[in-house]
Structure formats: C-alpha cells, structure tokens
Amino acid sequence: MKTERIVWIIILVIAGAFLLYRASTGQLGRVYVEGTLNDFVVDYSDPDNPGGTVGKHDARVLTVDEASEEGVAIPEVGQPNRYQWWSYKEQSAKEFWQETGVIAVEPESGADPDAANSAAGEGAESAAGTGAASTPAAAAVPQMEYKLSIGRTAGLWAAALFTLAIFSFLYRDNPFYKTAESIVVGVSAAYWMVVGFWTVIIPNLVGRLLPAMVKGWSMPGIEPDFEWTYLFPLILGIMLLMRLSPKGSWISRWPLAFIIGTTAGFRMITFIHADFLSQIRNGIKPLYVPQYTDAGQVAASATFWASLENVLLLIGVLSCLVYFFFSIEHKGIVGKTAKLGIWFLMVTFGAAFGYTVMGRIALLAIRLEFLFDDWLWLIDPKDLHTLTSAATGGG
Amino acid sequence: MFEFLKNLDRRWVFLLMMLSVAIPIIVIDWLGLSLPEKPSELARNVFDEIDQLNEGDKVLLSFDFDPASEGELGPMATSFVHHCAEKKLKMYFMALWPVGPQMIDDSIDRVIDQYYDDLVYGEDFVNLGFKSGGEGVIKVIVTNLRELYTTDDKGTAIDDIPMMEGVRNIRQMDLIVNVSAGSAGTKEWVQYAATPFPDDIRIVGGCTGVQAPLLYPYIPEQLPGLLGAIKGAAEYEKLVNDAYEPDPDNPRPVFTEGLRRMGPQLVAHLLIILLIVVANIIYFVERAKGGER
C-alpha cells in the first residue's frame, strides 16, 4: 500500500473518530428552532350589511384573538375558514437549552435571578418527555414550541460536507469535488431563473399586462393598472426566445440588436461622464496644499505631506499616460517617463494583488469559522452553544 | 532542505495556508484575544457620512453581494445596519443581486431582530428585494422607483407601506450605502447615480478586496468613503462600536466579526510574505549558480 494512501486513511480515521466523539456528547452541528403557531380566521361577514357576506377579495383575515375581541364566530380547528400553521425561526442551542430547562436562564441585568431560574424550571416541566416546550393557548400569547430541526440540521451537514468536498480539490480533482461543483452550478442556474420569474416577469411584466389575474393568483399586494406599453417588452422577449427554434433563430437577432444598441449607448454616455470627464476633473488638484494649525499658522510637515500626495498623483497620472502613448517611440525623456509609469503600474498591481489575497483569506476564514463554529462547535465566538458547567442549572 | 523548498509541492503551501488561518481562529476564540485596529481616513469618512444624518433621515442600503463573498462583506453589512439602527434612520433595503434579499434578511435577523426589536417593519425599515437589470435598475429608480418596485420583498404593495409614502425616487434618500461584491455594485452606483446627480445623491460603499483598487479613482469626489474588504470592515466596526456599543471595550460578538477575522489575516499575510521571500531567495541562489531561470 502506498504511503500516501496510508496517510489518508489515518487522517480519515482520526477525523471520523473525532466526529463520533463529538456526536456522542451532543456537541456537534445541530440546529434548533422556535416554532410559533399562526392561527387565523377568515371573516366573510359584511360589516355594512348585517347578515350579508362579501366575496373572497373583500374578506377579512383576523387572528383568533382579534376575532374573539370582535365577536366573530371562530370555527373549530380543521373546519373551513380556520387556518393554522407553524412558522419556525432558528434559535441558538443555548436558547433552546434555556427554554427547555437544560441550563438556567441567564437573568437580564437588574432582574431577579431566582425568578428567572424558576421560569426555566417551569419550561422544563412542560417539555418533559417530548423534547419540546409548549405553552397553552392563552388569549394574547401565541403557542410556541422548541425543537431540534431535522431538516435544517441536515442542511447544515450538507453545507459542511460540500465545503469539505470543494476544499478537496486543493489536493487533487476528485468525484466529491465534481459532484459539489455540478450541484452548485445547477442550483445557481435554477435559483436565478426562479428569482427572475417571481421578482421581474410576474410583477413587472405580467402584472402590468394582466393585473387582475396576477393579483388574484399570486400577488394580492400589487395594484398596478394595465399598461399597454409593456406589450413591447413582451414581444421582444418572445422574439428572443425564438433562439431556441432551429428555423426561427434569426428572429432573436432583432431584440438582441436592440439590447446591444441600447446598452452601448447607455454605457457610452455613462463612461464619458463618470469615468472620462469626471476623472479629468478629479485629477486637477493644487500642488501646494497648505495645512493650518489651530493658531492659524501653516503646519510645515502636514503641508508637505498633503502637497506630496497631489504631486505624486500628478506624476503618476502623467507617467502612466505616457506609457500608454505609443505614437512616439519610448526613447530619451519619453522612455524614462514611460518607465516611471511602469513602476506606478506595478505598485498598483501589487496593491490589487494584496487586496485580492486579503479577500481570499477572508473567504477561507469564514468557511473555516463555519466548520469550527456552526458544524463542529469547536469555537463559540457568539456564545451560542457552549454548555459550561457554570451555566447548567440542574437540568 | 534547499532541494525540498525548490521543488515544494504546492499542496504543502495550501496546507500551511489552511493552518495559518485555522489556528488563529481557534486560538483567538479560546483566549478571547482581539487585535488593535486603527481606523483609516476612508473608514472614518464612511462613518462620518452616516453619523452626520439625523433621526428619521432616509438611507438606501443596497446589498449587492451573495454568500460567496459573505465572509468579506457580511461584517460591514452588519455594521452598517447597526449604525443606522443606532441613529434611528429609516432603512430602505434593496438588492441588485438575486441572493441579495437573503443577505438583507440575514442582517435584519442578526441586528434588528436581535437588538432593535422596537424598530417596526414598514415604518422604520423595509426590504424592497431584488430586481434584475443591474445598472438598468439604478437608471430607472433615480427617476422613478415605483416603475420597478410595485411591492416589497414580501409582496406587500408599496402604497401600503407607511415609510414609502412620498418616496418617488432614490434622489430623495439622504444617503445611499452600497455593499458590493462586483457588477452591478459600487461602480455602477457611482456611474449611474452619484455622478449624474452630485447634488442629490451621496454614496458610501463597502466592497471586496478585488474591487477596491478599481474604486479608488472615484474617491473622494464621486465616492466620499469606501470600506475595502475585511480590513475596512474591521476599521468601521471599531468606529461604530466605540461610538455606540454599551461597553466599547467588550462589544457584542455579532459586531466584532471583522475584528475577529483580522487575526487569521495577520498570520496568513505573514506566511505569504515568508513564502515570497523564500521563493525569491531560491530564485536568486539558482541564478547565482547559473541554473535555469
């Protein structure tokens, strides 16, 4: 057996043993959620006509508490016009342990610690046997539950394993990397398409051409009027899709020409304004920049450095421009100035490289933080999942 | 040793880089260390632009990034929201990137839901969501926001959102804050919003390290302040924490993400410098020996 293979087997065995150990202690990648029960009643009664009813667009949606206050009839759970569902929000492991009484509630400053811990004990009692804490449906208090989220935990593990799969490319290309890469590409493409459909095509195109249909079908919030001018983008869009037709693909060139033409015009004006003219204006700076002390005297040192900044800017701009000016041979004074321009460019490239390195390290740091914090629970910078003996309150 | 270094397998460099980032992350967390940070003028300018606004002023926050650059830009996005929430500014969130709304939701969840639950959605902050079109979106909303934004990210009609009353275009915003990972991003905001309307629109931004050198030419006339990569985020965090955290010496962990990540940066940069020096020594020794250049 090759040495390399033995080394990898040892590494994988150690990593596996570590994961098993962490899993056995319960100190490893789990996601907990706090669930809130949403309980609504749809009221079809007509407020202006006692005994009458209104259509579905004019019906009122009330919480059970609101319905109770207004005297609206509340159907039984499971009956028509009564809608219940749970919405879940992620909570930290520490919050979960506090809610279920595993650890004592940390009292807020000024609060009575005994009262807080007694509340935690009550939570523990209601959670006993189920792993979830529920409060009874009181008049104004929504029902809550706290539990381990299997789906989100699986998502966390998938994220961690995909991160490792992508990292594995640093060793060499392999099937894990290929799988992760393909999934990223596929998911991204589908995500872009779905988001584009629901945020642009439906509200901004279909919503303008068939507002009543969109309002009744998918976006009750929108109130646009019919705008016939949006027929043009619709037609252009359909023409663009003709690219998929073997015989009619030439039709797609017309909208494409429209896109290229408008974008080119659009950008030309912008670049002339924002990058060409504005940069010329920004480059015109005084070479002497006096800086004053509080007493109104010229501060020699500060003035020197402020002036040097502008002088360097001027020299840098001129020398770089000379370097890119190829109508005159780069000899003599022109050649030396061009060479100076190269130095300025090299410094710029070096700065850009440094910034790029910094960015890439930051990206590596966040992935490692994710693995160590969210997945392995090795670190806890936000104090979300460390179960210390000092924090336990008898649970 | 010389031969080993000369023919060093690049995977050793990867491993060293991994360790140089991983070990400081663990050590900093276990020992509770943090590195001192001295804010630069650019970070201070960003801070001042937001800090000089008054309670109730309108700020448009465009989060034009995705999870791929969350490590660099997440901390500054968090700090921007932290700063705006402390100043009680009206926050209008939007995104030019499809995953931007999720980044907005993350920031709202991390900052507003956790620490500023007195802020009310629709009255103090609103998530307008994503619209495709990049610079085209900016071009439209500088004159007519409602042309593109008929609902917020949740599907609520714009007219039903109290803080949208009277808002016709983004020139009515007192400041635009952009967090950008590429195109469309800060460059496009400068080109299509700040430059054509210098009297109406002021922009500050935060960007990735790759973008930062490309944006420096716009400073300060077209872009008064810029946070470059994680370093800029850490400097800005320091300024906001010093000014607004209840205990500036011990800020809440969610507001120190950038500062924490400067430790791995330091060690990793030292490693890179070391590798560059070693590689150059090998190069010059080889050249002195008359070897292959």
Short description:
With 395 residues, chain A is α+β, with helices and mostly antiparallel strands. Chain A has helices at 3-25, 64-70, 93-99, 113-127, 150-167, 175-209, 211-217, 231-241, 253-283, 300-323, 332-375, and strands spanning 32-43, 60-63, 82-91, 144-148.
Structure overview:
The complex is a heterodimer of chains A (395) and B (293). By secondary structure, chain A is α+β, with helices and mostly antiparallel strands. Chain A has 5 domains: 1-30; 32-148, no CATH class; 156-217, no CATH class; 229-283, no CATH class; 285-383, no CATH class. Helices cover 56% and strands 8% of the residues of chain A. Chain A contains 11 helices and 4 strands. Chain A has helices spanning 3-25, 64-70, 93-99, 113-127, 150-167, 175-209, 211-217, 231-241, 253-283, 300-323, 332-375; strands at 32-43, 60-63, 82-91, 144-148. In chain A, strands 1, 2, 3 and 4 form a 4-stranded antiparallel sheet that branches. In chain A, α5 packs antiparallel against α11 (332-375), α6 (175-209) packs across α7 (211-217) and α8 crosses α9. Residues 109-113, 115-140 and 389-395 of chain A have low confidence and may be disordered. In chain B, α3 crosses α9 (229-244). Chain B contains 11 helices and 6 strands. The longest helix of chain B is centred in the last third of the chain and has 28 residues, at 262-289. A 6-stranded parallel sheet of chain B has the order 3-2-1-4-5-6, sandwiched between helices. Chain B folds into 2 domains: 2-33 and 262-272 and 279-289, no CATH class; 41-257, Rossmann fold, CATH 3.40.50. Chain B is of the alpha/beta class and 293 residues long. Chains A and B meet through α6, α9 and α11 of A and α2, α4, α6, α7 and α9 of B.
